[in-house]
């Protein structure tokens, strides 16, 4: 029975994404807003998480030097956040069904000199990022623009759904390394000179994370990017994508320079430094981060 359910679920996913891919470009903006509105209505528990996260983060964000949002109310930011999510979902549908080449062709890349400098080292590149902007577009575009690359992701419970997404991704020469036992595969990809994308802005657990301050509150953050960079010697570049008008911008930041401190304190300090890149993005683009996630779970009270 489970196999039947999984097959049906995968078929529904295929049909829904195909419908999204066939939306005419003239209706894209309106349909993206409609999808966001539907999600807002259908997922009240997630809507509550978004608004709660925003309300608790706003006092910190409003004091951040990169804060530019003129309407600093949680509800208004949440609504725009859902609209951006709706647009991103339609774009992902187009990409998965081979109709998204125009999205990649229209991408603007900033900080390319940082990428070229890191590439010249011949050790592969760790692309550190988060669930910012249309992160799936960035992942698929990397392989088209910069050569073969891999992303680290969680394996889906539905194997048919998982296989379908893998086939769609392979059309962009983008491979997936699944989180469980990923360390060896990541090191192998880096030794081959590939780009490895790691989205490291979600809550980790005490067994594989450290406590950091994130938007003024304590949060568990994975220490994996620090450990991988230390083990491989590969340069780590913070890389983010954001929506600018009707197009997207990928920004490479300068290589993050690690200290030689491999103590627990040193790892915690470097993980905190990496979390600051995500903070900076959220402050500059508060409507383009994945606020639905319970980022601060298990971490306790707010931090200064």
The topology string of helices and strands comes to HHHHHEHEHEHEHEEEHEEH
Number of strands: 9
Head-to-tail CA distance between termini: 51 Å
Q: Poorly predicted ranges (pLDDT <50, ≥5 residues)?
A: none
Q: Total number of helical segments? A: 11
* Helical/strand content category: alpha/beta
Shape, please?
Answer: globular
What is the overall pLDDT average?
90
Q: What does it look like?
A:
This protein has helices spanning 2-21, 28-42, 44-61, 74-96, 101-105, 112-119, 135-146, 159-170, 182-191, 224-232, 264-284, and strands at 108-110, 125-129, 149-153, 174-178, 195-199, 209-214, 217-222, 236-244, 247-252. With 304 residues, the chain is of the alpha/beta class. The strands form two sheets. It has a seven-stranded mixed beta sheet with strand order 1-9-8-2-5-3-4. Helix 8 links the parallel strand 3 and strand 4 (174-178). The model has no long low-confidence stretch (mean pLDDT 90).
């Amino acid at each position: 029975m489970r196999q039947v359910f999984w097959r049906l679920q995968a078929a529904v996913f295929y049909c829904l994404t195909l419908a999204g891919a066939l939306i005419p470009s003239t209706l894209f903006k309106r349909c993206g807003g409609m999808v966001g509105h539907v999600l807002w209505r259908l997922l009240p528990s997630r809507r509550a998480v978004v608004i709660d996260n925003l309300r608790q983060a706003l006092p910190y964000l409003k004091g951040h030097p990169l804060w530019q949002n003129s309407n600093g109310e949680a509800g208004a930011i949440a609504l725009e956040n859902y609209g951006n999510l709706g647009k991103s979902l339609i774009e992902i549908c187009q990409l998965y069904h081979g109709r998204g080449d125009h999205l990649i062709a229209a991408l603007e890349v900033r900080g390319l000199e940082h990428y070229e400098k890191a590439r010249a080292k011949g050790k592969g590149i760790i692309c550190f990022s988060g669930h910012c902007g249309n992160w799936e577009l960035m992942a698929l575009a990397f392989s088209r623009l910069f050569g073969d690359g891999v992303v680290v992701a969680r394996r889906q419970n539905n194997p048919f759904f998982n296989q379908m997404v893998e086939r769609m991704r392979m059309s962009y020469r983008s491979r997936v390394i699944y989180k469980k036992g990923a360390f060896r595969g990541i090191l192998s990809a880096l030794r081959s000179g590939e780009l490895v994308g790691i989205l490291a802005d979600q809550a980790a657990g005490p067994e594989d994370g450290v406590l950091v301050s994130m938007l003024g509150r304590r949060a568990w953050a994975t220490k994996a990017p620090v450990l991988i960079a230390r083990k491989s010697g590969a340069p780590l570049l913070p890389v983010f994508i954001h929506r600018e008008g009707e197009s997207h911008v990928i920004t490479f930041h300068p290589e993050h320079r690690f200290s030689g401190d491999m103590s627990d304190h040193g790892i915690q300090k470097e993980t905190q430094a990496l979390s600051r890149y995500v903070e900076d993005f959220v402050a500059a683009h508060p409507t383009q981060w994945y606020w639905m996630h319970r980022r601060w779970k298990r971490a306790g009270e707010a931090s200064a």
